[in-house]
UniProtKB/TrEMBL annotation, chain A:
<feature type="transmembrane region" description="Helical">
    <location>
        <begin position="164"/>
        <end position="190"/>
    </location>
</feature>
<dbReference type="InterPro" id="IPR024791">
    <property type="entry name" value="Cyt_c/ubiquinol_Oxase_su3"/>
</dbReference>
<feature type="transmembrane region" description="Helical">
    <location>
        <begin position="123"/>
        <end position="144"/>
    </location>
</feature>
<keyword id="KW-0812">Transmembrane</keyword>
<feature type="transmembrane region" description="Helical">
    <location>
        <begin position="88"/>
        <end position="111"/>
    </location>
</feature>
<feature type="transmembrane region" description="Helical">
    <location>
        <begin position="41"/>
        <end position="64"/>
    </location>
</feature>
<dbReference type="InterPro" id="IPR035973">
    <property type="entry name" value="Cyt_c_oxidase_su3-like_sf"/>
</dbReference>
<dbReference type="Pfam" id="PF00510">
    <property type="entry name" value="COX3"/>
</dbReference>
<feature type="transmembrane region" description="Helical">
    <location>
        <begin position="221"/>
        <end position="239"/>
    </location>
</feature>
From TrEMBL, chain B:
<comment type="similarity">
    <text>Belongs to the heme-copper respiratory oxidase family.</text>
</comment>
<comment type="function">
    <text>Cytochrome c oxidase is the component of the respiratory chain that catalyzes the reduction of oxygen to water. Subunits 1-3 form the functional core of the enzyme complex. CO I is the catalytic subunit of the enzyme. Electrons originating in cytochrome c are transferred via the copper A center of subunit 2 and heme A of subunit 1 to the bimetallic center formed by heme A3 and copper B.</text>
</comment>
<dbReference type="InterPro" id="IPR000883">
    <property type="entry name" value="Cyt_C_Oxase_1"/>
</dbReference>
<feature type="transmembrane region" description="Helical">
    <location>
        <begin position="130"/>
        <end position="152"/>
    </location>
</feature>
<feature type="transmembrane region" description="Helical">
    <location>
        <begin position="42"/>
        <end position="62"/>
    </location>
</feature>
<protein>
    <recommendedName>
        <fullName>Cytochrome c oxidase subunit 1</fullName>
        <ecNumber>7.1.1.9</ecNumber>
    </recommendedName>
</protein>
<dbReference type="InterPro" id="IPR023615">
    <property type="entry name" value="Cyt_c_Oxase_su1_BS"/>
</dbReference>
<keyword id="KW-1003">Cell membrane</keyword>
<keyword id="KW-0472">Membrane</keyword>
Amino acid sequence: MGETTLNGFGAKPARPSGLRGLAADWASDQRAFKSASWGKAMMWIFLLSDTFVFSCFLLAYMTVRMSTTLAWPDPSSVFALHIGGADIPLILIAIMTFVLISSSGTMAIAVNFAYRRSRGLTVLFLLLTAVLGATFVGMQAFEWTKLISEGVRPWGNPWGAPQFGAAFFMITGFHGTHVTFGVIFLLIVAAKVWRGEYDRGTKGFFTSRPGDYEHVEIMGLYWHFVDLVWVFIFAFFYLW
Amino acid sequence: MVDATPRSHRDVPPAEVPEVELYHPRSWWTTYVFSQDAKVIAIQYAGTAIAIGLVALVLSWLMRLQLGFPGTFDFITPEAYYQFITMHGMIMVIYLLTAIFLGGFGNYLIPLMVGARDMVFPYVNMLSYWVYLLAVVVLAASFFAPGGPTGAGWTLYPPQAILSGTPGGNDWGIILMLVSLILFIIGFTMGGLNYVITVIQGRTRGMTLMRMPLTVWGIFTATVMALFAFPALFVACVMMLFDRLLGTSFFMPALVEMGELLRYGGGSPILFQHLFWFFGHPEVYIVALPAFGIVSDLISTHARKNIFGYRMMVWAIVIIGALSFVVWAHHMYVSGMHPWFGFFFATTTLIIAVPTAIKVYNWVLTLWRGDIHLTLPMLFALAFIVTFVNGGLTGLFLGNVVVDVPLSDTMFVVAHFHMVMGVAPILVIFGAIYHWYPKITGRMLDERMGQFHFWVTFIGAYAIFFPMHYVGLVGVPRRYPEIGAEAFMTAPVGGLNAFISVAAFVVGFAQMVFLFNLLWSLRHGREAGSNPWRATTLEWQTPTTPPPHGNWGEERPLVYRWAYDYSVPGAPQDFIAQNDPWPDRPARRP
Ligand code: HEM
Ligand SMILES: [Cu+2]
């Protein structure tokens, strides 16, 4: 029992399972989540809080979509690309979504290699994830540029309700900011793995906490969350 | 009875989490200024909160000058009056109460009371304070900005909040307010995550959730609530900032101002109200739950009796926390919402009264036949109970739609919420400071100044807010700098208003005595020793007082019992500390 480590990677003592186990954990001392480290638990609670932020944004968007007096522009024509002489609805968003979902896959693989302590492959897949994330942001920038050139502004657009542009820029912008921060942190984590800081437990410059491969997993939690949020934005903004 | 039977030390489970090395400060700067020690951060938080709270106090004097003696002070224009109420309300609720309970008491007490060495992520905790300070600076800056601070009322309702008719509406005021709130939320989130995880994952050996002092339960639940309630305010602030700066129309319908059609249109002002009150109502409990918790501990300690119904108290806190997310629209009865909606929210509102009443009964039953010491913390705790019951009863009135509709936006509402979320939590803050000051500084606060402070504050608060109920009942509206001819009132209110104002100055003066006491006792207070109140909780059992960085010296304490073993028959003393294995002999550490 004593060898359970801070990061939760170590051996875990046998505990009752199911509801009984849950009750036992919450009735116990020291920790309620027996297999979660501090960092992981903190990321989970942060993501819960962030879920509320995104939910409020989406609910607000739905409310203004109902309250506005002008017609809502038709997403499938607004978000169409003119390729090879035909307007293909939602094609860019489809690709963006595909890219982001794929990045969740590469992130999961990176976490797996981190568990196995294989440094090179972890770095490779972290970088791949970062590249996919950056691609997503790049395509979003392209989409913004296209819409802006067509006259969409936060305060109005050529096709109808001004709230369309407002909600669009606000929500995709907020999500894109999340992705951008994710990419930055992916690069930092990749650099730390590459330099072997998680093997040696090098202390963080600011936090003075020893590095640990678990950081890769915590990074992954954030990344999957950002992905999941995108699915909702996609469904509510582009498909409705 | 919970865990009252002492366990033998053999029952204390082995350590699951190895000790984490704390950050070692290398200079004066990192020890006292950019400190990562939760106790220093706590004092920074509390000091900043009190400083900005003084601004809000002065603003309340200015408002009372105007209300008590209308027409006498030229410099208080109607615009200035709106700015005063707005800044007063917002500072009191967010920058003083929320910050001092969670950032101040949370930081100081959580690690000590659960037997941790510090918060789980001290660096993030430190950032939390500095972002909070930035938020306060931005807020204070709006006093000096062109156009002055916003006068939109602390609820910041659009569309008026960003129109030119409102002070600061098309100047800097509203922008700085929104930016400051956004910063506050970011800073709070960093600290709040720390408080939550320290309680869930950072307790010492033997400290189960159901052995935690109620103070920790109150602060913990309030923090969880804040992490889920502040997002709504965050979103509302971001959207209003866009409405103001980019000309979006999230909250803005089509409007004619000064005969000119504005470029807004199609937005929903009611949406803002929903977002604001989805935050705003939980906010009431975010400041009330820590107060509930602290008061439970003060009463138990100073009546030398275990808290009555500990388990019920914990569940009441949790249930109040959960329910308070489904009552928000009781602030919107007059917004024109559907009557069925009002019916639903009135019902949930009245249901909350049940767990709340349970808590009040349990406090009274704790006092029942206790060995009551009328120390300063006890006096403040008793005053809190009375005041809270008072405010709670008028809350039951206002929770009913038919009663609220005529009373809404009168001084009755102002009197109600000052009782329940102004005076009551402030009394607890005072009680808590008198209680924990000896641990923080090693010296007692001066008793005579304290008695003066207590009696003037307590009686004075009633002199202010009791008549205010009456003033509201006869129809004086809230947020009016003056009501002009009183002919339409059933009774003259001018004399009462003057009386209230004088009482407000007297109460304000008593707070200066309190602040002086805080400074004076630092040097001249009586030496306190490590456990002057003979209390059971862990913070009183630290090897040195004030506790050093890391709190516990070599070994973290082992916990054998709940926090309320007072006057246990047969025990050598009238309290048994949580880390006392009585009747076993102390464990030899494995
Ligand atoms: C010395 C003690 C205090 C005095 C004399 C005082 C006085 C006042 C007055 C005169 C108003 C304006 C009423 C109106 O015209 O509508 C007001 C509003 C308000 N006060 Fe206080 N107050 C005090 C303490 C507090 C505290 C501790 C809180 C903390 C919750 C608080 C929260 C508020 C709020 C939220 C408003 C509403 C502002 C608005 O209408 O936008 N006050 N207070
Ligand atoms: Cu409420």
